[in-house]
Specification:
heterodimer, A: about 290 residues, about 0% strand, B: about 120 residues, mainly alpha, two-stranded antiparallel sheet
Chain lengths: ~290, ~120
């Protein structure tokens, strides 16, 4: 299915549609005041009455059927301009990538069992090198390592170096920007049903978050908690790859559409969500000067 | 006294074969016909705005609505013009009937005035 919009051509059509509506309403109004005067044969008078009444009704109905078109054209023009806005297209690619990059500095939330496994590997399966010892014994080293891994992911910034703390917050900020931009873009898209708007937005966020966690987990599994620059590259690479693939194949859109098909009962909430998303997105894009 | 001009004959009573005076104002009927023609002219001017710059299933629906509106306007314009023509004809017939009645009435008055 191909959809094209020539904003300039459609802009010209709006006054023409409005003029047609005015002409139809005006004609219907004039016909309302016309009746056959005395002296007209009965059959002809009946024809006049019928023609005038039915024409007036039909013309008003046709005018009402056109009422929504100028606004509809305006929405398409806005959407076309939005799609043509290079800043937004760039943002669509870079914001998720930046988010992934920032996220890759952290390991993502580790469960207690995950932290225990990593600590066990470090303490029991990677014996100290020559000249190194666990000062208080392996059990204490295990507990310390496990706690450190767990709290580094859950306990807040106190366990993280200053640079990584900033990266975590940057990741959260970019997540918010990405959420807002995705929601704004979907809710502004006039070609989507309400269910699709909500479904696509939710799916984009869910899949994006999933990739982020997977990327972090992959880096952690491969390189340990101190993944450092290599983990950064893995996370960054996965994030960028996902963003590019999702843009190209619309994976999250397809997931969202399937969810929308499954349940369209979200319509009432969508208006409020759309309004909020638009407001947040405008602020977020303003930060980037877009 | 018998009027010298048929337009001055009294419109009361009946004329044998013609009955009572045919009521109605041909001028008023023609005025209504003119009103219908004016509305028809407005409707004929309703064009189908072009939205060729937009191609999608939704655009096809909008295009169909615009076409239907223009078509309805043009159809009713043709109907109204036809009616206006019929009213003009009716006005012409009424005018002729009224003139014939007046002539008949004048003749009747002349016959009644003869000794």
């Amino acid at each position: 299915m191909t959809m094209t919009v020539d904003a300039q051509a459609m802009r010209i059509a709006i006054p023409a549609v409005q003029a047609a509506i005015v002409a139809l309403d005006s004609a219907a109004g004039e016909l309302g005041g016309i009746s056959a005067p005395p002296g007209v044969p009965g059959a002809l008078a009946a024809r006049v009455a019928h023609a005038v009444t039915s024409a007036s009704r039909d013309l008003r109905a046709k005018a009402r059927s056109l009422d929504s078109i100028p606004d509809e054209l305006l929405r398409r023009i806005s959407a076309a301009q939005l799609a043509d806005a290079p800043g937004l297209v760039v943002a669509g690619f870079t914001v998720p990538a930046l988010k992934m990059y920032a996220d890759s500095f952290s390991m993502g939330p580790l469960k207690w069992s995950g932290a225990a496994g990593m600590a066990m590997r470090d303490v029991f399966f990677r014996p100290p090198g020559p000249g190194q010892t666990f000062a208080a014994g392996r059990w204490s080293a295990f507990k310390l390592s496990m706690s450190t891994a767990y709290y580094a992911s859950h306990g807040g910034p106190s366990f993280l170096p200053r640079g990584l703390t900033a990266a975590r917050y940057a990741g959260r900020g970019l997540t918010a920007v990405n959420v807002a931009a995705t929601a704004y873009s979907n809710f502004r898209n006039p070609y989507l049903s309400t269910g699709q708007k909500v479904g696509r937005t939710g799916a984009a966020l869910a899949t994006s978050a999933g990739v982020s966690i997977m990327a972090s987990a992959a880096a952690g599994a491969a390189f340990g908690s101190a993944a450092g620059p290599v983990g950064t590259l893995v996370g960054f690479g996965a994030g960028v790859a996902w963003a590019a693939l999702d843009k190209k194949f619309g994976v999250s859109n397809k997931i969202g559409d399937a969810a929308a098909d499954a349940g369209e009962a979200v319509g009432d909430a969508a208006g409020a969500v759309a309004g909020g998303a638009k407001s947040v997105a405008k602020k977020a894009l303003g930060v980037f000067g877009l | 006294m018998i009027p010298t001009d048929v337009t001055s004959v009294p419109l009361t009573g009946t004329v044998p074969g013609l009955g009572a005076y045919p009521t109605g104002d041909p001028g008023a009927i023609r005025a209504v016909a003119d009103q219908l023609r004016a509305v028809a002219a407005t409707l004929s001017g309703v064009d189908k705005p072009s939205v060729d710059g937009w191609k999608s299933p939704r655009a096809a629906d909008v295009r169909a609505r615009l076409a239907a509106a223009a078509s309805t306007a043009h159809d009713h314009a043709a109907d109204l013009r036809g009616l206006a023509g019929s009213l003009d004809t009716a006005a012409g017939h009424l005018e002729a009937d009224q003139r014939a009645w007046r002539i008949g009435k004048r003749r009747l008055m002349e016959q009644e005035a003869k000794p």
